[in-house]
Amino acid sequence: MVAIGQEITQNRLYSVAYEANKRAAIAVPQDGIEAFEQAFSRETKPMASFILGQVLENAQLAIAEERPMCGDTGLPRYYVKVGNEAKIEGGFVALEHTLRRAVADVTQDVQLRANRVHPLTRQNPGNNVGMFAPSVDYSFEPDADWIDVTAVHKGGLFGTDYRMLFPADGTDGIKRFLLDNLAAFARRGLSCPPVVVGVGLGGSKDQCVVLSKEAACLRTMGDRHPDPDVAVLEDELKELANRTGFGVMGVGGDTTALDVHVEIAYTHTGGLPIAISQFCLAYRRSTARVYADGRAEFRDDPLWFTPYYRRAGLE
Ligand code: SF4
User: Fold this and answer.
1) Which domain holds residue 220?
2) Statement to judge: residues 18 and 166 lie in one domain
3) How many domains are contained in the chain?
4) What is the residue with the minimal CA distance to atom 5 of ligand 1?
5) Rounded average pLDDT over 159-172
6) Are residues 165 and 141 in the same domain?
C-alpha cells in the first residue's frame, strides 16, 4: 500500500540509482534480447549471422560474469519521472547529488570505462562525472507519489544528426534524411548497428534532438506511437532502414535497425525540423520505481511516454 505523504529517502534513492545503473551496464533488457534473437533467426548473410550470434553470446556472458556488456560505457545518463505527489528527502538538489554519486560509484565498482572528459583539455576525472555529466532529464506524472529512475548508457554517438526540412519535403524528406544518416554512419559501423533509431519530428531544433534521443532510448521494441499516422511512418522507416542492407556493424545484412520510434512535437508552421538519434547495439537501460514507503520495483520498460507526457490539449 502506498503511503501518501512519506518522504522518499536519499538512502533508498541512492541504492536504486546505483542498482539501475549497474543493471543498465550489464544486462540487455528482455525486449532487446528478443529483438536480437529475431534478427539472428532471419539473417541470411553468413558474416552478419555470425556477429549477431556473438552479440547474443556476449549478452549472456556479461550477466554470468557481471561485467559491462560493452567495453565502451557510452554516456551514462538518467531519466527521472517524478510523481506530482512525491516527496523527496532533501529535495531535488539532494537527488542530483545522489545520482552523481551513484554514477561515480558504479564506474568504480563495475569498472566502467571512464568516458567523460573536458572537451578541450581532454582532462578525465575518471568517474564519468563532470560539468553537466551525468545528464539528468525530468518529466512529471499526475496522481502519483513514486519516482521512476531510468539509467541509460547511451552509445551510438555518431548516429545523431539534425536537419531543417520544409513542410513540403514531407515524408519523402524524412526518408531521405534517414537514408543519409544511415549511409553516413551505419555503413562504416560508426554507430554500431543494428540500432534503434529514434526520430524527433517537429518542435524546435533543441526539442526534436531531445525527443529523438528519448524515442531511441526510452521505448521498447515493437512499441508504436498512439497517433496512427506516426505509427505508419515508424513501420515505413523501419522497413526502409533494413532495405539498405548495411546490416550489423555495416558488414552487410538484413537488419540495420531493430526498430524505429518517432516522437512528434507541434512545430512552426513554416518548418519541419527533424533529428535522428541511434541507440547502438549495446542496448543498455534499466528502470526502477521507488514508492513513498520505500519499496522499489525494477522493470525493463521505462514507461516514459505516458499520455500525460504526450498531452496535446489544454487539460
Ligand atoms: S557505439 Fe555502442 S556498441 Fe559501439 S562501442 Fe560504443 S557503446 Fe559499444
Assistant:
1) 156-279
2) no
3) 2
4) 72
5) 96
6) no
Q: Mean pLDDT throughout 68-85?
A: 95
Residue 308 lies in a domain: no
At residue 155, does pLDDT exceed 90? Answer: no
Can you tell me the distance from the alpha carbon of 112 to that of 105, in angstroms, rounded to the nearest whole number? 10
Rounded Cα distance between 242 and 265, Å, is 26
Q: Please give the Cα distance from 37 to 52 (Å, whole number).
A: 8
Contacts (Cβ under 8 Å, ≥6 apart) of 86:
8, 144, 145, 146, 147, 292
State the closest ligand 1 atom to the C-alpha of 157, by its place in the atom list counted from 1: 1
254 shares its domain with 219 = yes
Which residue(s) pair with 262 in the sheet?
Answer: 199
What are the pocket residues of ligand 1 if the criterion is a CB atom closer than 6 Å to any ligand atom? 70, 72, 74, 155-156, 192, 280-282
- How many Å separate Cα 41 from the centre of its chain? 25
Q: Strand 87-88 relative to strand 7-8: parallel, antiparallel, unpaired?
A: parallel
Pair (181, 90) in one structural domain: no
At residue 4 the predicted structure's pLDDT band, cuts being 50, 70 and 90, is: low
Domain identity same for 101 and 215: no
> Measured between alpha carbons, how far apart are the two ends of the chain, in Å?
29
- pLDDT averaged over every residue in the chain: 95
% residues pLDDT > 70 (the chain): 98
